[in-house]
């Protein structure tokens, strides 16, 4: 208004009014530019200032304390190293954000695992043994991308399990001797008891007044005692369970946790040890007219067409009857009839046991049951045993070593309807006769077993109803190792697990496995899914594939430390396929996983020139390369694959013209060698599959 003549003529006042509006944007821009380096530094720290540290030899040295602003790409591994003085314990804890999951482990200079949190959350703890101190390598793996922080601290070795003063803070304790632990009142430990194995906790030394006791964690299968004992045994349990161990007192102590004394199974009702009965009970020609038999072995009986006998049982009591006669398989039959409200219940015929007829019955009420022997006039013996309670010793999933079998030893494996039981056993076939599995259901019906080579036994069965399956190992008293696996039935309400990693074709190295791990991928109709899991020698990983409804599609074949799963896809395009990797061994292994689809498309363009014999270098490995080769019928091809990167995981395979895998190398690794004989003349393809890395192929054809 002043510039237009409205009001006093004072132009300086106009500048004073409007100049701040003109200067403010420029001043704000200058201030933003002044803070740009700070924002750039913050952005750089969010990316991860310690990269590259994805390999063991790239481990970055860090100091004790809290390391912030770390970040993991999906499936990445970060390595750090820290010096730990003698007399102190290193505690390492990786704290992920909400979108990051992973695990932490400690390693020595040789790469050997010193400690790991794979089985339970909590810090990784390691105490050096070298008086000069040790350099410890910390490995952090992330399943999903996101930030995390790393806490490193040094503590008194006696406090390496702290905080564990309450049952909720119980520290996981592995078998072995744990020296110089410091107790300030109560120390709580959590122990995973394997199925079928007893445990013993013992204080090897300690201050006066220190004692221990076992405490149930989730059930009341045993009664907790007062914490005053210096040694306590935990009884065998049929299934794996968690239990708590409390040490109470003050001062330092040495704690030893070891497997308890092995208890053989309760004897199968010993028919061989029954008392001989010289009586000749007169048989009856009708159910109610037979002689009343008692427990024992009746010899010298003779069949007269049809013979009836009676046995009195109490409610819940079991009867085991065995009929032996001359001849390989005589024409005699043994059957049992139980009374019911409408007369006699349908007969239960005895099963042929290879050398005799055996029948097992449980009485539903007090009363008599009737045995019928029918056949030609031949001599036979009849053995009867009555007993109460469960039959056989409970046996749960797990690995059992140095067991002994025999006719008088029986194991009971509880199953639910739809569950699948898998048994495998190994023994030294050169030390004695061949062993065989004897598998029975709750009605004592023989179940089929699989054929296996000498020195091995195998069986698989699916439970139709709830009830036990009985197991005997017959043929001799040779020691054997037994593995029991029980696969759960999916049921109508089956849902994929919450922690399920989405993957595609490729190689996924250094995967951690704590019990089991789930993956998901999309189906390709008409293609064949090939999955290979490899672990270190002495470890194993099993593979299973499921559809979206939880139905089992395929099971991997295990050979040494490699498990292979193959399945021809029949699911619609894009349908989810769930892959389960699991281990039944006690120590959680690491595994490398290879996923490939074969036969869905042609492996490479038909006009690509074929490789000639000789050495070929490839600098731009993409993780999935296919190279054609021309072979005559019967021509032998030898291929040597070598990767340039030391930590590369590559797989070499030969495909036909349709992309089907014909031959593959036995293991994943930096160097692979393959030999292949062409069944017919034509074009074949070499597939290099794995982590992106420069590599070379050396071809020799003869």
Q: What are the key terms here?
A:
six-stranded mixed sheet; disordered N terminus; 702 residues; Jelly Rolls; 55 strands
Radius of gyration: 35 Å
Q: What is the subunit organization of this protein?
A: single chain
| Number of self-contained structural domains | 7
Strand content: over 45%
Query: What is the CATH first-level class name of the largest domain?
Result: Mainly Beta
Helix content: under 10%
Number of strands: 55
Describe, in plain words, how this protein is organized in 3D:
The chain is mainly beta and 702 residues long. The chain has 7 domains: 34 residues, no CATH class; 104 residues, Jelly Rolls; 93 residues, Jelly Rolls (Sandwich); 117 residues, Sandwich (Jelly Rolls); 74 residues, no CATH class; 99 residues, Jelly Rolls (Sandwich), CATH 2.60.120.380; 88 residues, Sandwich (Jelly Rolls), CATH 2.60.120. Helix content is 5%, strand content 49%. The protein has 2 helices and 55 strands. Strands 10, 11, 12, 13, 14 and 15 form a 6-stranded mixed β-sheet that branches. A hairpin with a 2-residue loop joins strand 22 and strand 23. It is flat. The N terminus is likely disordered.
Task: Detail the topology: elements first, then pairings.
Blueprint: H1 11-34, H2 36-47, E1 60-61, E2 65-72, E3 77-84, E4 89-96, E5 102-107, E6 113-116, E7 124-126, E8 134-142, E9 146-155, E10 171-172, E11 176-193, E12 199-206, E13 211-216, E14 231-234, E15 241-259, E16 276-277, E17 291-293, E18 296-302, E19 305-313, E20 318-325, E21 333-337, E22 339-340, E23 343-344, E24 348-349, E25 351-352, E26 357-362, E27 367-375, E28 379-387, E29 393-394, E30 398-404, E31 411-415, E32 420-427, E33 436-440, E34 446-447, E35 456-462, E36 467-474, E37 479-487, E38 500-502, E39 506-512, E40 516-522, E41 528-534, E42 542-546, E43 552-555, E44 557-559, E45 562-568, E46 576-582, E47 590-598, E48 614-618, E49 624-631, E50 636-643, E51 650-655, E52 661-664, E53 671-677, E54 682-690, E55 695-701
Parallel strand pairs: 1-3, 10-11, 16-18, 17-19, 29-31, 38-40
Antiparallel strand pairs: 2-9, 3-8, 4-7, 4-9, 5-6, 5-8, 11-15, 12-14, 12-15, 13-15, 18-28, 19-27, 20-26, 20-28, 21-24, 21-27, 22-23, 25-26, 30-37, 31-36, 32-35, 32-37, 33-34, 33-36, 39-47, 40-46, 41-45, 41-47, 42-43, 42-46, 44-45, 48-55, 49-54, 50-53, 50-55, 51-52, 51-54
